[in-house]
Design brief:
Chain B: It comes from [Candida] jaroonii. The complex is a heterodimer of chains A (260) and B (274). Chain A is of the alpha+beta class and 260 residues long. Chain A is built from six helices and ten strands. Chain A is globular, with a radius of gyration of 24 Å. Chain B folds into two domains: 81 residues, Methane Monooxygenase Hydroxylase, Chain G, domain 1 (Up-down Bundle), CATH 1.20.58.570; 176 residues, Aspartate Aminotransferase, domain 1, CATH 3.90.1150.210. The chains are: A alpha+beta (260), B alpha+beta (274).
């Protein structure tokens, strides 16, 4: 059972809303008393694969310190653990990364700070990870509005390597007033870029603006192609139905029209 | 919170697009002897997309839910027989003959409703059951179901209307819970989920018509109105609220947004047209 239980819990956690891991953990702990370790390990895997924001610190498999529970903040040169319950970074300590930072690193960090102020109105966090011949930028925008029954996360990961930039953007929203509605939007991007803070942030800004337009287009597409054609607002007659014995007349009418 | 409430809370959080898989996983986890009742309660209180079965005696499909189920078999509204196996004994649930007559007429009426609102496609099914022993139409309950899918599942609609009718004096009180499961997706964007709302109406019975017709009219109007309301609500949540959360809470486009405004106008125009 334990191996199976492990995969069952992971599969449940896998469809959790990124901003509600604390609630998901509490629910699972009540359902599976004594299995806290197994539950927490599923939740940690989730955070590492999807990225999370903890009091301004970004946690992901990309900045996990190997052989440790801690994550690396390359910007401030710190190590930290995450406290899921309070959504905070804890056990923060100084750290001197071995990786070589690119020359434009500080400029990129400053520009990303400004980019957040200009475009991310709610909780915003980012990190820049130097990795041998690659630089990774992670951006997380989050809104946890439990009074109005929704939580949402925008998560972008950009990799700059050998004059090429690739991006993975994921938007995940959970709306739950008298129901449970979920939005997922995923897009991958690729282009060439001359390494440098300004060029990278311009690429990110232009791409994310284009992506926003694409999202609105997609909403229009879902309405025109599917929503409108699933159920009409009113019948073709544009009047509500005359219920009771007369209802058979509609069929009579349609049979005449369809020559059945 | 106990295990049942925690399970409901968990399923309310997890992706509704995976509700059937998640419910199944959860029931596999809850397999201790003292949890059998709990999983049964979960299976009957969580709405999942409706399944279709074919009534082989007339080749017409019908919808399956907990209310027409007996073990692994489901009662067809078209013939009152169970499928895939018609294993009937004294314990097998059937509506009383008075209620079955109403059920036949309700199925005919809501099939016409389905043609008119779902444009001659989809499937509808109505199931009624007695809540009193007297086999009259003074107190009963039922469920009205609709299902429609387009483009290989990129647009999916399931509506589940559960109601109860209670007589008080010469009035009849109708209590309705309406849930719609709506999934819409293209290659990039998917919006899926369900909304539930409660509706109620009380009507005075006068002898202008027979009681059967009276119930058909009242239930028809109540469900037609509730579905109209919940469709508007779904439109508001899916196309207005979710979009606004992205544009206003998660990421602002910035100053120069003429193009964005035009696209939003286009969407609003598309939503307004019938």
């Amino acid at each position: 059972m334990s191996v199976q239980l492990d995969s069952l819990v992971s599969s449940l956690v896998d469809s959790a809303p990124p901003g509600e891991l604390n609630g998901v953990q509490k629910d699972l702990a009540a359902i599976l008393p004594g299995q806290e370790r197994l539950i927490n390990s599923s939740i940690e895997s989730f955070i590492e694969s999807k990225g999370g924001l903890f009091g301004g610190y970004v946690a992901s498999s990309l900045n996990k310190l190997s052989g440790s529970t801690k994550f690396v903040d390359y910007v401030h040169k710190k190590l930290f653990n995450i406290d899921l319950k309070n959504q905070q970074a804890i056990d923060i300590e100084s750290y001197e990364p071995e990786e070589t930072y690119p020359s434009y690193y500080d400029e990129l960090v400053e520009l990303l700070k400004q980019y957040g102020k200009d475009h991310y109105p709610s909780t915003y966090g980012f990190t820049v990870i130097p990795k041998n011949d690659e630089v990774v930028v992670i951006i997380v925008g989050q809104k946890l509005n439990t009074e109005n029954y929704y939580t949402g996360q925008w998560n972008s990961v950009y990799r700059i390597k050998n004059g090429t930039i690739t991006g993975d953007v994921a938007v995940d929203i959970h709306y739950y007033e008298d129901g449970n509605v979920r939005l997922n939007f995923n897009e991958t991007l690729k282009d060439s870029v001359t390494a440098g803070g300004r060029n990278i942030v311009n690429f990110i800004n232009n791409s994310e603006n284009q992506l926003t337009l694409k999202i609105v287009d997609s909403f229009n597409d879902l309405n025109v192609k599917y929503f409108k054609n699933l159920r009409r607002l009113l019948p073709i007659t544009r009047a509500k139905i005359n219920w009771g014995n007369a209802i058979g007349n509609y069929r009579l009418g349609s049979d005449v029209v369809n020559q059945k | 919170m106990d295990k049942f409430d925690s399970s409901l809370d968990l399923l309310r959080r997890l992706n509704p697009d995976k509700i059937s898989e998640n419910l199944n996983d959860l029931c596999t986890i809850l397999q201790n002897d003292d949890e059998i009742e709990l999983t049964q309660d979960l299976l009957s209180s969580i709405d999942t997309p409706l399944k279709l079965i074919k009534d082989s005696s007339n080749n017409k499909e019908f919808l399956c839910c907990d209310y027409n189920r007996d073990g692994d078999n489901y009662r067809s509204p078209w013939t009152n027989k169970y499928f895939p196996e018609n294993e009937v004994d004294d314990e097998t649930p059937f509506p009383s003959s008075t209620l079955r007559k109403l059920e036949i007429k309700a199925n005919e009426s809501f099939d016409i409703y389905r043609d008119l609102y779902y444009e001659n496609s989809g499937v509808s099914s109505v199931y009624l059951w007695d809540t009193e022993d007297d086999e009259t139409l003074d107190g009963f309950a039922g469920v009205v179901l609709f299902k429609k899918e387009i483009d290989g599942g990129e647009g999916k609609w399931d509506s589940i209307h559960v109601f109860e009718v209670i007589k008080s004096g010469s009035n009849y009180n109708y209590k309705l819970t309406t849930s719609v499961i709506l999934n819409l997706s293209n290659k990039k964007l998917s919006c899926s989920g369900n909304l539930t709302r409660q509706f109620e109406s009380t009507k005075k019975f006068t002898n202008d018509t027979n009681l059967e017709t009276f119930h058909l009219i009242n239930l028809g109007q109540l469900i037609e109105n509730s579905e109209y309301n919940i469709r508007n609500l779904l439109q508001e949540v899916y196309f207005d609220k979710l979009k606004d959360i992205i544009l206003k809470d998660l990421r602002n486009y910035g100053n120069d947004s003429n193009e964005l405004n035009e696209k939003q106008q286009e969407l609003i125009k598309g939503l307004q047209g019938l």
